[in-house]
Design brief:
It contains 1 helix and 10 strands, in the order αββββββββββ. The chain is mainly beta. The chain has one domain: Lipopolysaccharide (LPS) transport protein A like domain (lipopolysaccharide transport protein A fold, Sandwich). Strands 1, 2, 3, 4, 5, 6, 7, 8, 9 and 10 form a 10-stranded antiparallel β-sheet that branches. The chain is globular, with a radius of gyration of 18 Å.
Length: about 180
């Protein structure tokens, strides 16, 4: 299938903005080429949408996304919005300046380019280093540096949160080498 140049440029811009805008993301990833695989792609220039279906794999630098379906659209102001669907859909990306990864999963993941907001729905979890949070809905607003996690009923609970409640595991901060302070001075 041959994609017209205008469509190709739209697809690249959409993908770069959709997946590289989180505050924790490895900044160098934005300058890397996007490698996208899917069984099919449908581009609608009139509606400014691209829909990828079937074993979708997106790679850009350290970012890797797996989904059953990925829909990217551009609004009238030029902002990119994307939704990935899967059972589950997952992402993993190296964090800026750290030797650790941010990764997550949900049945649906949405990114709003105008608001710089990431939302994960249904059996959602996000892991940063060794810290992890589970819930039915996870939202991160990069502009406001604000996060929200909502639990669900016990029938829809994630594997790490079997009661349907929000569950977080936060590891203690590592002390600098040579530090023996007990806090009792």
């Amino acid at each position: 299938m041959r994609i017209p140049h205008q469509c190709y440029m739209f697809l690249l811009a959409a993908m770069a903005l959709f997946f590289s805008c989180t505050a924790f993301a490895e900044q160098a990833d934005r300058d890397k080429p996007i490698d996208l695989e899917a069984d099919t792609v449908v581009v609608n220039d009139a509606k400014k949408t691209s829909t990828y279906t079937g074993n979708v794999i997106l790679t850009q630098g350290t970012l890797v996304i797996h989904a059953d379906k990925l829909v990217v659209r551009e609004d009238e102001s030029g902002f990119q919005h994307g939704t990935s669907y899967g059972n589950p859909t997952t992402f993993k990306q190296k964090m800026e300046g750290k030797n650790e990864y941010l990764e997550g999963s949900g049945q649906r993941i949405e990114y709003d380019g105008r608001m710089d907001k990431l939302q994960l729905y249904t059996k959602a979890w996000v892991k940063r280093g060794e810290d992890i949070v589970h819930g039915e809905y996870i939202m991160y607003d990069a502009g406001a540096e604000y996060a929200e996690v909502i639990g669900g009923d016990s029938k829809a609970a994630t594997p790490g949160a079997t009661t349907g409640r929000v569950r977080a595991v936060i590891q203690p901060k590592k002390k600098p080498a040579g530090s023996t302070s007990t806090g009792k001075e």
